[in-house]
Amino acid sequence: MEKIIIDLKERYAKILDELKELNQFLFENPELGLKEVKARDKHCELLSKNGFFVEKGYCGIETAFLANYVAKNPGPRIAYLVEYDALPEIGHGCGHNILGVTSVAAGILLREFVNIYGGEVLVIGTPAEETDGAKVKMVKEGAFNNIDVAMIVHPTSGNIHLRSSSSQAMEALQFTFRGKTSHAAGAPHLGINALDGVITLFNTINALRQQILPTDRVHGIITKGGEAANIIPDLAVANFYVISRNKKELDILLKKVLNCANGAAVSTGTTLEIENYETSFLDLITNKTLMEVYEESLKDIGVEKMENSEDSGSTDAGDVSHVCATIHPYMPLYKDVISHSRELAECTVEDGAYKGMEEAVLALAVTGVKLLKNTKLLDEIKLEFSNR
Question: Which end of the chain is more exposed for a tag (fewer CB within 10 A), N or C?
């Protein structure tokens, strides 16, 4: 592998200025989920320049894209996932600018080796991870059905690479309570207070917390609670995230939360509507064999230390992991910053971030080369996936 790694480093050095230029552009032009037109176009422009066939509007999602390169000879289909949506007000506080550039760079590096060993490299643009989670729709559309492995590396605080572990299954629920308006002082007995329904929901969920798993999470906000203090509100709305370690545990928790909501409606005389206000995510199932290959690849390029990551948060990459072997490790930004902050956004264009990016790009590419060369290794990954 030593000669291959030298080759990869040389190829990376040749495109580094373009990668930095793309990352800086994304940093300076943050776009919210499903509005990432500039980001989509810039990613596609660089991939097209490097020999990829590009399809915009992939799976019927305007800001999604598929860029692929198919060799003459058959072989593994290896996908690198790209995210590029920003956060409201603080821009790329989750680092999706450098995340996307990392995946694009890995795809470009692997392209030449697909020519040598056969197969296909895909770079898939997946918008709106922070909100609507385009990967969920793309999974339903079959975008990942025939892919052998999918990889994505997320930036994180600190100076140590972190292993892919798991993410939590999440359901995003909106509870709409409806009642009847009346004068709050003059004729309260003629009204039905929708806000009482929401408040009762919060209270019953708070009482429920003693009986749920330590790993479960239920948290929400009131988005509508009335117009004036002297009018009994006929409409009140609360948005909740209901989160658990996996789909099985989430289904149990959901049943309890829905009972709380229905009980709140009955006890307050309100009517209740329940719907999803954002896309819900499945839990991430890390393919351990693939993760071991990635960790070995980091060591091959000189990164000796890697630690476990904590299981927290949710990602639409979880849905991908239910249909093909997937990993979601973390690359360091080589700076201690808080996630979803302006400080994190700013450090994604600093030297430390580019150090972490280079390490992740090379590890992703080396992993890809190993899978192209070693069909037995790929068989082991696919066997683990089928037995998960």
Answer: C
User: Tokens representing 87?
Assistant: 């956060």
Residues in the chain: 388
Indicate whether 205 pLDDT > 90: yes
CA 182, 240, 277: angle at the middle one, nearest 5?
85
With beta carbons less than 8 A apart as the criterion, state whether 141 and 315 touch: no
**CB pairs under 8 A, 24+ apart, for 374-382?**
375/76, 377/289, 377/293, 378/76, 378/148, 378/149, 380/289, 381/148, 381/149, 381/287, 381/289, 381/290, 381/293, 381/325, 382/148, 382/325
The pLDDT of residue 313:
79
The mean per-residue pLDDT over the stretch 27-38 comes to 98
Tell me the average pLDDT across 293-312. Answer: 92
Nearest to 204 by CA among 266, 247, 248, 271: 266
Query: In order of start, what are the domains of the chain with their CATH numbers?
Result: 2-167+282-386 (3.40.630.10), 169-276 (3.30.70.360)
Alpha-carbon gap, residue 130 to 315, rounded angstroms: 8
Say if CB 370 and CB 377 are below 8 A apart.
Answer: yes
* Arithmetic mean of pLDDT over the chain: 96
Residue 157 and residue 90: Cα distance in Å, rounded?
17
* pLDDT tens by residue, 206-232: 999 999 999 999 999 999 999 999 999
CA pair distance 13, 282, nearest whole angstrom:
37
Residues in CB range of 28: below 8 A, 6 or more apart: none
